[in-house]
Design brief:
heterodimer, A: about 160 residues, about 75% helix, about 5% strand
Chain lengths: ~160, ~230
């Protein structure tokens, strides 16, 4: 008699294979690296917070890619309402920019509270992180709406 | 003569892994003027939705041209076309932003069309009432049935008060009683408001509502072997 096996069912989906899986691995890796390098500094700059900034664009890309279905419905509606590519891009850039700014701002405030002022480097890093967050959040949408297949989604 | 929208000898080739699907072998030529009601009739897979996308600038034809208000817009976006002729589109698949309520969706569409804030609520109320949807203004689109979502799209298009309304199988997701209600509404919009309508359908009984009919032909398929034969 044939014996049913559950192993192929589980193993066929158990290994990371999506872009979002890779992003999750990288983010966790960066967090781990940050934790282990927190006590080191180069030329007076703490390595920990610098490495933390690397996680900002990746986390924004992960947030953007994790609900692709809903985003696609949103994009289809925006175009149907008469929106354009640059409007869709700006919409998501600002969302990623805001997410990054909210996330990184406490670090910035803590630095000001500790040292009494914010250096030009820290301010630049804050802006750079927010811009990178916006760019990485909006990139998947821009790629989607520019693809040849996008208009196919209007068909049933 | 300048038409609201005109397509001239539009053809589309769709490359497949095992050949090329050729839509509209003779080329689609149609003209929609102010107050016209044009129906495009064709079977499933004959390119009705593709033609709507080509007219709206969401897909580019392989050959042929599309004109809006007399201007060649074959390579232009939907936004550019809307600027030439105020156009609203209702697609086969309902389109609404899931995070916004029905009222907020309509309000956003109106603000994007440049309708003043003071006028929006009145227009939203009117168009939702026209389709019997006034009780679901605060509902989210995903909590509604396919038929209700289709009517929301129609209400949104109506609220914009377009010169040209383009509809891809407007009765597609509706049961027969709801579908039978939609067609007289479209005829009313065309007759009483002078709105030009371009509609696709697979059903001749719905196409009968139109004053002009464009018949699509079944697509051809060219495989590497029959290309050699030819």
């Amino acid at each position: 008699m044939e014996k049913p096996s559950w192993a192929p069912f589980i193993l066929s989906g158990a290994f990371p294979r999506e872009l979002t899986d890779l992003l999750a691995i990288l983010i966790i890796g960066i967090a781990g690296l940050e934790a282990s390098l927190i006590q080191y500094n180069i030329a007076g700059l703490e390595l920990g917070p610098l490495i933390l900034f690397l996680s900002v664009p990746l986390t924004c890309a992960l947030a953007s890619l994790s609900n692709t279905g809903k985003k696609l419905r949103e994009e289809l509606a925006l175009f149907a309402y008469g929106g354009s590519e640059w409007q869709v891009w700006t919409r998501y850039f600002l969302r990623g920019f805001t997410c990054s700014l909210i996330a990184v701002f406490p670090l910035f405030v803590e630095e000001i509270a500790r040292t009494g002022s914010a250096s030009a480097l820290q301010t630049s890093l804050l802006i750079l992180a927010a811009v990178a967050g916006g760019a990485f959040y909006s990139a998947p949408s821009l790629r989607r709406v520019r693809s040849v297949e996008f208009a196919e989604n209007y068909k049933a | 003569m300048t038409y609201l929208v005109e397509s001239v000898s539009v053809k589309m080739d769709y490359p497949h892994s095992d050949g090329v699907l050729k839509l509209y072998d003779d080329g689609v030529t149609l003209k929609v003027d102010q107050g016209d009601f044009v129906a495009v009739l064709g079977g499933s897979g004959w390119g009705k939705s593709t033609l709507v996308n080509v007219i709206l600038g969401l897909e580019k034809p392989t050959t042929g041209s599309v004109y809006f208000g007399g201007e060649d817009v074959t390579r232009s976006s939907f936004v550019k076309r809307c600027a030439l002729v105020r156009t609203a589109a209702v697609f086969q698949r309902p389109t609404a932003i899931p995070q916004l309520t029905v009222g907020q969706n309509l309000s956003l569409a109106l603000s994007m069309a440049g309708v003043a804030k003071s006028e929006r609520n009145e227009r939203i109320g009117e168009s939702l009432a026209f389709f019997g949807l006034e009780k679901i203004t605060k509902s989210y689109p995903e909590s509604l049935s396919a038929g209700q979502r289709k009517r929301i799209d129609l209400a949104r298009a109506l609220a914009v008060r377009p010169q040209l309304l383009v509809l891809d199988e407007p009765t597609g997701d509706l049961d027969s009683s709801a579908a039978n209600l939609v067609m007289p509404l479209l005829r009313g919009l065309n007759r009483d408001h002078g709105m030009a309508i371009l509609m696709t359908t697979a059903l001749p009984r719905y196409a009968a509502a139109a004053r002009q009919l464009v018949h699509l032909k079944p697509p051809g398929f060219i495989t590497p072997s029959n290309r050699v034969d030819n």
